[in-house]
Amino acid sequence: MLYSAVTPTQKRADFRAALASGRLLRFPGAFNPLSARLIAAKGFEGVYISGAVLSADLGLPDIGLTTLTEVAGRSQQISRMTDLPTIVDADTGFGEPMNVARTIQTLEDAGLAGMHIEDQVNPKRCGHLDGKQVVDDATAAKRIRAAVDARRDPNFLVMARTDIRAVDGLAAAVDRAKKLVDAGADAIFPEAMASLAEFAAIRAAVDVPILANMTEFGKGELFTVKQLADVGMNIVIFPVSLLRLAMGAAERGLDTIEAEGSLTSLLPQMQHRAELYELLDYPAYNHFDSGVFNFTLNPNLPS
After folding, report:
1. Is 83 a catalytic residue?
2. Transmembrane stretches, by residue range (predicted)?
3. One of 74, 186, 213, 234 is an active-site residue; which one?
4. pTM of the model
């Protein structure tokens, strides 16, 4: 009912413990608060919030147009819906090191368990597009140090994302990952790895948790959870997958209305009203007013 009763502090502590367990943690990307609740209901270990999804939700491309206020506000709405830890894409930190520091504290206040900052130049672009540019080692390290120094909860995860693999190759990615860990990064997100062997090379280079990005239609192959676990990955994200599935279904639905004049043929593919109300925990709101949920729904009937 309403929001999670687990405090952000406890979620962060639980997240750190889960990372220390050695298990691979699965973090599907939520595109709104309701999808975060579905992720939790299906038994996943965490929720991811993609910058590309936040941009797309506003009808904008992923080129650094979103603001800290927009990202923090939507992240709070999503993170408070479940007992799971939520991590968010903070792009390049929304400015210079002092802005990075403010970003960290704002995201802490929004209830996040962690975030990642990348080493692209501003304006940044999607990590799986050509033409990316990255900052030098000193600038990348300065961003991470500012983030680590600013956090108030030591369990708030500061993850460093590096996009240098697509610019200067794997050796540069290995070197950058080491330097980001030296700067204080709690975890590494090596973007656009081309193979399991490349993930393994990053694993051999650093002793902090590593995140693998399994985004569709990108630069890399889509590996299974088992394959990633076998090369020592600690977190896997599916950042835009649910949005792509939802938008694909929406497009097919609109086409069906155009072609058939109704959506009767697609009813079996829809989430039933009864399933939606269960996900929303509708009956629990009778705690406030016994007239809120005083009806029954037959899940076998269209509704």
Report:
1. no
2. none
3. 213
4. 0.93
- List the domain range (segments joined by +) for residue 275: 247-289
Say if residue 150 is in the same domain as residue 282.
Answer: no
Residue 59 reports pLDDT greater than 60: yes
List the catalytic residue out of 12, 26, 151, 161.
161
Structure confidence at residue 86 (pLDDT): 98
128 annotated active-site = no
DSSP letters, 69-119, are HHHHHHHHHHHTTSSS-EEEE-TT-SSSHHHHHHHHHHHHHTT-SEEEEE-
| CA angle 6–9–14, rounded 5-degree value | 75
Question: Domain ends where: 210, 226, 241?
Answer: 241
What pLDDT, in 10s, does the model give residues 102-158? 999 999 999 999 999 999 987 666 656 566 789 999 999 999 999 999 999 999 999
Residue 93 and residue 116 in one domain:
yes
**Is 108 a residue of the active site?**
no
16 is a catalytic site residue: no
Q: Is residue 152 flagged as an active site residue? A: no
Q: Identify whether residues 251 and 284 lie together within a single domain.
A: yes
Does the active-site annotation cover 126?
A: yes
**Active-site residue (options: 14, 45, 118, 198):** 118
